[in-house]
């Protein structure tokens, strides 16, 4: 349990310190790339549980940004994790092919 709490704290700190590149500008999508918007998904990604409806909604909003997040060393481990793939599948979002 302590490891999960520590992982959560590190992830939140990294979210605030290292903003992801704005991939939305490259794809002419109106959504701004903001990894903080994916905080509702953190428990499902780090713990392997089912994503909430809020998580899926935020993933859909941030979908054009996932490649940018995966290229950022601060977030790559979360985007490429097996639990992240499960969350994306459960939300009906294809894994990004960057």
TrEMBL record:
Keywords: Lipid-binding, Signal, Transport
Entries under CDD domains matching the protein: nsLTP2
Every Bifunctional inhibitor/plant lipid transfer protein/seed storage helical domain range: 33-98
Species in which this protein is naturally found: Brassica campestris (Field mustard)
Membrane-traversing stretches: none
Segment forming the signal sequence: 1-24
Single GO BP term: lipid transport
Any one GO molecular-function label of the UniProt entry: lipid binding
Name assigned to this protein: Bifunctional inhibitor/plant lipid transfer protein/seed storage helical domain-containing protein
Pfam families, A to Z: Tryp_alpha_amyl
């Amino acid at each position: 349990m302590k490891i999960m709490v520590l992982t959560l704290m590190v992830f939140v700190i990294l979210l605030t310190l290292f903003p992801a590149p704005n991939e939305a500008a490259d794809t002419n999508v109106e959504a701004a790339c903001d990894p903080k918007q994916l905080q509702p998904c953190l428990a499902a990604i780090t713990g392997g549980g089912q994503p909430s409806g809020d998580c899926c909604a935020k993933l859909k909003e941030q979908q054009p940004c996932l490649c940018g997040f995966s290229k950022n060393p601060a977030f790559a481990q979360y985007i490429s994790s097996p639990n992240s793939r499960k969350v994306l599948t459960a939300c009906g979002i294809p894994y990004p092919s960057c």
